[in-house]
Design brief:
By secondary structure, this protein is an alpha/beta fold. The protein has helices spanning 15-27, 38-47, 65-75, 105-117, 127-137; strands at 7-11, 31-35, 54-57, 80-85, 98-100, 124-125. It has one domain (7-137): Response regulator (Rossmann fold, 3-Layer(aba) Sandwich), CATH 3.40.50. It starts with 6 loop residues before the first strand and ends in a 5-residue tail after the last helix.
């Protein structure tokens, strides 16, 4: 694998979502590993020899996804974790960044970038935030 490539491990049990997220990330030049369940996620984390920079995780998987994140962090203390969830009932640990489903590609990519480049971003990425930022950064109209 090329040096300086950012590697993201996507752990999502729904194949359609997993494939869409993978495609969104690949288009931006990320190296993407995918796992359909907790066992596959742990296996990839153990066997992949290069750094994995981000675990992008759906916490409502076959097993408790949040404990999965903890187990991956035990294997790879340097990994960053971001939750992608549409379930409002899921309790997200404090200081864990979240992108709310459903999301558009720009929202996911912006949130991933913020998590990868900031040690202090622990917020929730919403479509509304992206639209507000785009509006604020656009040139004034006459």
């Amino acid at each position: 694998m090329e040096e300086n490539k950012t590697v993201i491990l996507v752990a999502e049990d729904e194949a359609i979502i997993r494939d869409l997220v993978k495609l969104m990330l690949l288009r931006e030049g990320y190296v993407v590993l995918t796992a359909k369940d907790a066992d596959e996620t742990l296996e990839i984390s153990q066997k992949f020899t290069d750094p994995i920079h981000l675990l992008l995780l759906d916490p409502v998987m076959h097993r408790d996804g949040l404990s999965l994140a903890k187990r991956v962090r035990e294997q790879r203390p340097e990994i960053k974790v971001m939750i992608m969830s549409g379930d409002t009932m899921t309790e997200i640990p404090e200081n864990t960044p979240v992108v709310k489903k459903p999301f558009l590609s720009p929202t996911l990519l912006q949130c991933v970038q913020r998590v990868l480049t900031s040690s202090s971003f622990h917020g929730v990425c919403h479509e509304v935030d992206l639209r507000r930022r785009l509006k604020d950064s656009s040139p004034p109209t006459a």
